Amino acid sequence: MINKNKYRFSREFEKTDKRFSIGERLVHGNEILIIAGPCSVESKEQMLETAKGVSKAGASLLRGGAFKPRTSPYSFQGLGVEGLEILQNVGKKLNMPIVTEIMNTELIELYSEKVDLIQVGARNAQNFDMLKKLGMQKKPVLLKNGLGTTVNEWLMSSEYILSNGNDNVILCYRGTRSIENATRFSMDIGAIVVAKESSRLPIAVDPSHAAGRKEFVKDFALAAIAAGADMLEIEVHNNPEKALSDKEQQLSIEEFGELMDDARVVAKAIGRKIRKG
Ligand code: PEP
Ligand code: MN
Q: How far is the C-alpha of 136 from the C-alpha of 130, rounded, in Å?
């Protein structure tokens, strides 16, 4: 266990699990919350159909990228503000809080107003200026670990948000780069266990970006629940073969339903439940 006595993320700072609500959904209770939705918001129809599917299968929060961090500047960059508006409308329609990634500090005001859970992606996980500013606004933040960061560095990033006044932070583990290239990133179960042990914050796991291939996503998700994840974030698309980003890893609505069925069994085995909706 990392001894970070008195850092705000730590169990030494506060022994009890940090809990808060997003809408009426309690984060870090006995119930595990599922975030699902496409990698990118592509159109109103795509978003609505996907949202209806994941909602029916029991997802609690709706994701969708509007501003996308892409390796190549020639790849689809997201619909931007228009995408955010589509996500917001669909979320309202289905009564699902929305989760979307923030790419720069100029978007903070807009996101504070429109987004229920602001995601900081792996590529911005050590953008300390942005983390400080996200600490000065009130919306909860889902903080991914960086592509090549240690658990300690990830936790210290959360400290930038917490120490600036925002205590509603979720740590989201999405794997790191390692020597292994059979999966897109390496999902270290040990990192999940250490983060749970060291921090009072809720821990989410993103098996989609870790696995990078849809055939591995369910097993990564089940392992994450067994390791103690309080939330999962999963990419689901109404037509994955046609997805404009991350098409190899996005589940169909049907595959997501199968994942949810198995997730309920694993959650029950460790005395927890998957929240339905
Ligand atoms: C995402 O969730 O859309 C994403 C880009 O994830 P990450 O930042 O973990 O790569
Ligand atoms: Mn993606």
A: 10
